[in-house]
Amino acid sequence: MEYYKREQLPVITFDEEPEYLDRKLIRQALSEKPFNIVLVEVRGKLYGMVSFGDVIRAGDGPVPVNRNFTALEGKRFMKAREIFRERVNIREIPTTDEEGRLTGACSRYDDLLYFEYYRPWEGNRYARPFLSKWKKLRIVRTPVGDVRRQKIVDSWIEGFKKFDITCELVDFGDIPNLEDEKIPILFVDEEMFLGAQMAIECLDGRALHTDVSFTFRHFERKTAELGFDALVEKLANSGVKIYNLLFTEDESSDGRRRLWEGMRRWKKRSGKPYVTPDAAQGFYEELNVGNYAAEVGRLTLYVDANDVYSRLKDTRSRYLNVVNGERVTVGQPSEAERTIWFFGPCVMIGNYVEDKHTIESFLQERLNREGYSCKVVNCGCHETPYQEMIHITSTPMKPGDVVVFHVNNRPFANVESIDLTELLDQNNVPTEWLLDMPTHCNHKVNQIYADELFDRMVRDGALTGKASRKEDQSPLACDLAVNALFLDLYFDGYQPEKGKRIGGIALHGNPFTLGHRYLIEYASKHADRVFALLTEDEAGLLSFAERYAMAIEDTKHLPNVTIVPGGPFSGTRNIFAVYFVKVDPATMREGTYAGFRIFGEVIAKRLGINCRFIGDERHCPQMEVHNDLLKEMMPKYGIEVIEIPRIQAEGGSISASRSRRAAAEGDKETLLANVSESTYKILVGEDD
User: What is the pLDDT of residues 502-522, one digit of tens each?
Assistant: First the structure.
């Protein structure tokens, strides 16, 4: 979480209470101080706000001022974090004083904090080949006087110079004229990026081109996409049949030309990410009765996502149901010989259709009718390509299973591609059945796609033959993914010294306490080098960026200690779900095996870790079982486990939960007995 003072925010002041804001006024405010919301003051007090969603819903007209919004009196940072965790649709929370005057705003995005402590290109195997694609990059200028953002921009420009890349600074107003040149346009952080989206929507009613516009953090993550082909090849060689859905934009036939002209008309006429009322009849045809289009054409899908984990949030409704992160596939059997897994956004999720009309449900119905023992699982999710590859490689698929994905709309070597544009042309699909691209389609198009997949699977023999059901097998391609999506990003070129004692620590640090520091200091004294892997999963109250900053600050006096992001497969829900769902300790063994094996066989082996330091967890039955299993398994990989007792404070053990309670209650004395001054400032937001 980040806090922005009032002078950093786009604020429009009035003497009288406005019902609407002129779009030009919104754009002007955002151009000076880019942010995801515009605040409205009346006679010196906070009156309302306008978000990007408000701008979208207003169409081409003036934007109504939202009076029904969440605000906090005072800088109640712990309360703000709780709201962000519980309400995913809230991205910013204004703060006021006792008189209702605007003092600032909390943002759930904290890219700035992350980049103040992390150097993105050090140890990254993919940095040079990734950056060699460009000779020039464009960086959007930071607001005047924003020293913090400017310092990060200057650091990145210096980094790019090492790769012989020229950086051009551009203004918000330049962006619409530059996007078609396909030169990346970079924003220092998410708030500037979202502010640009709203500003451009206000300018000419269109969306920012996210294929060329990136935040620094997103741009950094794209380096890992160079490892995708190797991951897909590994998966295919492991006995999994893969089909890649993509679409081509060529207009080599009359049918293709007709289709793309129709999709361009839609984008020009509407460009909205939902089925508009004027298009509902043509899109839904016989289904368009009553409120059907209003309910199904604008289904609300929430995503539980961060850099290393992404799943749809569970929901139940008449037309949309998500259970355990997977959209319901109608007719899915509880047991089957093999599983067909679907991954990807929009068309895989089934954005504009009800549960029974997704590709997965149509395919399941066909499989059931034809007598095939297969279970179709919808793992579709709105996620970046990096997140999608993590999702794929952490799924417990087995030899004989089938994977259907849509990643970055590009082909992969030795993987069969299905051109959706070609299918649409062959079936003479009406343009009314599509929005702006072949993956934004209606139920009848989904039926066509499902039938094509079924026919190809039958032709290829993908639905017959032996299918493994060995339940203790680790996710296929996971070992390669640990290297490609973690170790290669942080440790390329690192060679452990022989004969040295190298320690490993895994921690969540929610928040980073004096107990965590004590454990790391102990390891520092008893090992030549220590790697502390900080869990990147954002399931806790504090973000990874906050926890990372705390850990760096509290251990910077230890030269032989390296605090490093833990990656997608170290203590995250992808591998260690039992930690986050708090299952019965007696059932933890199965849920912890994969994570321990990955650490022992892959991570520790590459880093030369031969001892693992852990803290005593007798206060927590679940974590005590975790430690017992760790002590049982690590020696099998030649790793000694060293457990040390917890340190005490004010008559009790120092703990993260105790620290969170003290922070929430404003108990400064207890909090400072459990955490350092630097952690205290991040937790409660005290100025230096």
Answer: 999 999 999 999 999 999 999
